[in-house]
Design a protein that fits this description.
Belongs to the ABC transporter superfamily. Helix 3 packs parallel to helix 5. Strand 12 and strand 13 form a beta hairpin. This protein has two domains: 219 residues, 3-Layer(aba) Sandwich (Rossmann fold), CATH 3.40.50.300; 67 residues, Alpha-L RNA-binding motif (Alpha-Beta Plaits, 2-Layer Sandwich), CATH 3.30.70.1560. The longest helix is centred in the middle third of the chain and has 16 residues. The chain is α/β, with parallel strands linked by helices and 311 residues long. The protein has a six-stranded mixed sheet with strand order 6-7-8-3-9-10, sandwiched between helices. Strands 2-1-4-5 form a four-stranded antiparallel sheet. The two termini are 36 Å apart.
Amino acid sequence: MQDPIISIEGLHKVYDSGFTALADVDLEIQRGEIFALLGPNGAGKTTLISAICGLVRQTSGKIAVDGHDTLEDFRKARGMIGLVPQEVSLEPFEKVLNTIRFSRGLFGKPADESHLESILRELSLWDKRDSRTSQLSGGMQRRVLIAKALAHEPEILFLDEPTAGVDVELRKAMWDTVNRLRERGVTIILTTHYIEEAEAMADRIGIISKGRILLVENKKDLMARLGGKQMTIELVEPVDTIPDNLAPFGLGRSEDGHELIYDYDTTADRSGIASLLSAISSEGLKVKDVHTRQSSLEDIFVGLLHEDGAS
């Protein structure tokens, strides 16, 4: 495996108030991957991103961006990073094109109008290039934030809750842009409350709670390891209680008694489904329908936070 593009060791952040925002965080981000960081509000997601980007100084621990220590070699480390913050903050009277020109210049990059035009066209902002940012809709302003983050051609892009409060059309356009960036080799780290986006987009998932990383795993492996299946058996006639002979299966019962619910492990050698259906038949219960549901990433996420006492 190639060296990680971001390496974090023993990261702590304690604020002057005594609040511990990050505690003993170890994390590696691989070059070219899409990494999703999930966690409830106040879990430490934004603090972690801010520490990597040099906006917050860590209390202890080390952060390296492509081998550059973020404290000892800040300019080189920060120059590799584009950041799309959660909050929209733009100079209201500045024109869109000038805004991203200025952002490129801040990183010491030479003028490149063709690159800026390409970014604005890709984000459907070219026809707004001479508009003041205050004249744009909220969704368009968020696109300007992405354009600013990409102006200096970063190798790493941080997206902090990028689609919070935006419409479905813009959300799709933003993820199309993310896919194109990924194809060019840009490493993308995102925080999101839209778990379905992480499930659809990410290569790996990290879950953070109370400033600690609970888990980092390949999305497919995580789903296979923790994602069980649930089978719902719809009965022709309802049952008031689950028969004693079915007790070993650990069944649940719907409120109206028309459904029996069976949770099973997809990785086990035997699911127990055949034995269960045979036992149901032996009890004289008639089955109307059977359907299954795979656990989603959201189920896994909620379960892990529950174990950690975060919810």
